Amino acid sequence: MKQSDVYAWTGDVLAALRGALDAQEFVEILPAILSSRFEPGARHTVAVMGDRALPRVTNGGGATRDQVTVVGRESYYLPVSHCVEKQLALEHVMKVYCMAPCVRLLMDGEDRTGRHLYSFFQTEIEWRTESEDEVYTVIESLLGDFAARLLERVGRTDRCDDDTRARISTLAMGPFERIPFDAARRLVSRSGGSLNPHSAGDMTHAEERALSESHQAPFWITEYPDGVRDSLYRRTPSGKFATYDLILPGGHGELATGGLRPDSADDIRRQAQKFSDSPHEYYPSWKARTKLQTGGLGFGLERLIRYCAGASSILDIRFAHDHGPNATIEARNA
């Protein structure tokens, strides 16, 4: 894809998405880029702050050539998502979203999927709700409005052919099918593939791709069992979790992940202990004080742009100005 088209598609998707969110009275907030808080279970990166000078960076040699030592004045965690931060904002406003920068270390095989990046953006959406059904209804309505706004914008350009119009229109085909996780696994159990590096109990990339290829419209995977997710969600009376993925059709795979948040400070602490020996206390303490129940999800922004533009790989929409670790993915696989 031409770089001029990458920039044009990105601008159009952002404008249409912001318009649809604004129409539903979501307030855009600015994401916190650095934090002293870490996410249980996440593979974090750290920003080191210097003191009137660059931090001192030493690249290891010999057996430690892949290790980097950085010395500076102080350090903070870079966001893997903005999941907790957007909940904290809901103490002061009813509905929020942000375009959040995320940094996530790729795991085994993810640099070859065509849909994973080291650094990326998530459209983080959250509001006060206790209803999983409400989440589905709101997000499906949001995507329908987004699709209409985007088609109005790109329909005036030479980037919109019949295939593009049909692909974007699938986002307005709600209500989407809801498939419980156990049923989804059974549907694609013969697809194989290596274990998911995030969780041995989750779908393999091959299974998710097969399920995606079998659908003509987006769909939800719901009712995740214990031991699959590496984040914190509300437990349901069935013993499953009120968490969900939104999957794009045609082999494009997961677009968004989210859920209802744990309903008590104690449950946050119990779940966090599975992922960290010393989970951060700020989140459960906030929950105990406010008792707010929220839900939402995060769209992979580059994944949405890739789908709308019809790019074969997420690397096709990498910006020319991106000189970060994403630039190494293609070279490593050459």
Write the layout of secondary structure elements.
Elements: H1 3-23, E1 27-28, E2 46-49, E3 56-59, E4 68-71, E5 74-77, H2 83-89, E6 95-103, E7 119-128, H3 132-154, H4 162-169, E8 177-180, H5 181-187, H6 205-213, E9 219-222, E10 243-248, E11 253-260, H7 265-273, H8 282-290, E12 294-300, H9 301-309, H10 327-333
Helix pairs in contact: 1-3, 1-9, 7-8
Short description:
The chain has 334 residues and is α+β, with helices and mostly antiparallel strands.
Give your account of this protein's structure:
With 334 residues, the chain is an alpha+beta fold. The protein has one domain: Bira Bifunctional Protein, Domain 2 (BirA Bifunctional Protein, domain 2). Helix content is 33%, strand content 20%. The strands form three sheets. The protein has an eight-stranded mixed beta sheet, sandwiched between helices. Strands 2-5 form a two-stranded antiparallel ribbon. α1 packs across α3 (132-154) and α1 (3-23) crosses α9. The protein is globular and about 55 Å long. The model has no long low-confidence stretch (mean pLDDT 91).
Mean pLDDT: 91
- Helix/strand class: alpha+beta
- The outline comes out as globular
SSE succession = HEEEEEHEEHHEHHEEEHHEHH
Helical fraction: 25-40%
| Tally of separate domains | 1
